[in-house]
Amino acid sequence: MTEAYIVDAFRTAGGRRKGRLSGVHPAHLAARTLDALVERTNIDPSVIEDVIMGCVMQAGEQALNIGRHAILESRLLPTSVPAVSIDRQCGSSQQALQFAAQAVMSGTQDVVVAAGVENMTRAPLGISLPQGGGHPRTPEVFERFGVKNFSQFDGAEMIAEKWGFTREQMDAFGLESQAKAAAAIDAGAFDAEIVPIAITLPDGSSDMHVLDEGVRRGGTMESMAGLEPLSPGGRITAATSSQICDGASAALIVSEKALKDYGLTPSARIVNLTITGGDPVIMLEEPLFATERALKRAGMRLDDIDLYEVNEAFASVPMAWMAHHHGDPAKLNVNGGAIALGHPLGASGTKLMATLIHALKARGKRYGLQTMCEGGGMANVTIIERL
């Protein structure tokens, strides 16, 4: 089977809800990221065979195949490059990367872009739900699983209860995520992976958006303790949940033939691609079990992995993942996670991959693992080898 390589991956800096990126159309966000990928990897854009764009809220400005709209908005990609938009909930662009890698591994394509976009200010959560009646799930589904609703908030609380995590423990995790993200920004750890985005400020002046906007500095356990839980009597608060975020990301996936034909230098080799489905009620626990399968199929142990990116949808998710696998805290989300940096839904998969690749490079490490919990009780796992 043909190997698949990641030439590189890049992302925009996250924008807070109604923040610095709120005035930027999602197609523009995605297009500027695609252009930066072409410029920084020196790939001839005419040889790109497909763009696979992750996007969750495919309605409003993100409707009608946002991936294709990004190409038409691009300054560099010709209109001959096709695109498709996919939704695997929070894992959408991680799945885009896995589909791209599968296309390369199968030998059907040699150069594929995996990308993601979500402007959650302009296409907010719930915009894609039916208006005026109807529901994506039938009454039989609710009856089958004995619930009135499938809620990620409930799932996060169920995980905290199952694993015995206290409010204080999760607050401490959230505080550490903020501290790691702030330290990474101060050290310039994200500089190489960030695509600057031109923005217009409220006063009409222009600026470049280059810093993750959601990081909260100066927080304390005392200030976090004063926050109300998201659910009555619950343990999860806004400080231990991923932030609503606007952003885009992209990665270039190629074959060995493409590396030689186009003079490209790979950043990483794809080692394993795994996707599993599990309990749709507790929902967010599936990364635990998907990781077990991925490691087994790769013939690896967690000790072989140098860094892991476990999406911080809620603090209880990576905490349960760590407890289940007896992970090393020094390897987890070393530059902070979505609690501090934001979770732009469909863009988060290739966003985390960009951070993982650059963090491995900065530390001279070899193997990285990325996993993402997803609505409906699914999880993606991708293992890479930095080259």
Explain what you see.
- The chain has 12 helices and 13 strands.
- With 387 residues, it is α/β, with parallel strands linked by helices.
- Strands 1, 2, 3, 4, 5, 6, 9, 10, 11, 12 and 13 form an 11-stranded mixed sheet that branches. It has a two-stranded antiparallel sheet with strand order 7-8.
- A hairpin with a 5-residue loop joins β7 and β8 (206-209).
- α3 (92-106) crosses α12 (348-363) and α5 packs across α10 (316-325).
Architecture blueprint of SSEs:
Elements: E1 4-12, E2 15-16, H1 26-41, E3 50-54, H2 66-73, E4 83-86, H3 92-106, E5 111-119, H4 139-145, H5 152-163, H6 167-186, E6 194-195, E7 197-200, E8 206-209, H7 221-225, E9 245-255, H8 256-262, E10 268-277, H9 286-298, E11 307-310, H10 316-325, H11 338-341, H12 348-363, E12 367-374, E13 378-386
Parallel strand pairs: 1-6, 3-4, 3-5, 11-12
Antiparallel strand pairs: 1-9, 1-10, 2-9, 5-9, 7-8, 10-13, 12-13
Helix pairs in contact: 1-2, 3-12, 5-10
Give descriptors for this structure.
387 residues, alpha/beta, eleven-stranded mixed beta sheet, two-stranded antiparallel ribbon, 12 helices, globular
Offer a quick outline of the entry.
With 387 residues, the chain is of the alpha/beta class. The protein contains twelve helices and 13 strands.
Class by SSE composition: alpha/beta
Rounded to an integer in angstroms, the radius of gyration calculated over CA atoms is: 20 Å
Mean pLDDT: 97
Span of the ends, CA to CA:
19 Å
Pfam families: Thiolase_C (PF02803), Thiolase_N (PF00108)
InterPro entries: Thiolase (IPR002155), Thiolase-like (IPR016039), Thiolase_C (IPR020617), Thiolase_CS (IPR020613), Thiolase_N (IPR020616)
Organism: Novosphingobium colocasiae
Keywords: Acyltransferase, Transferase
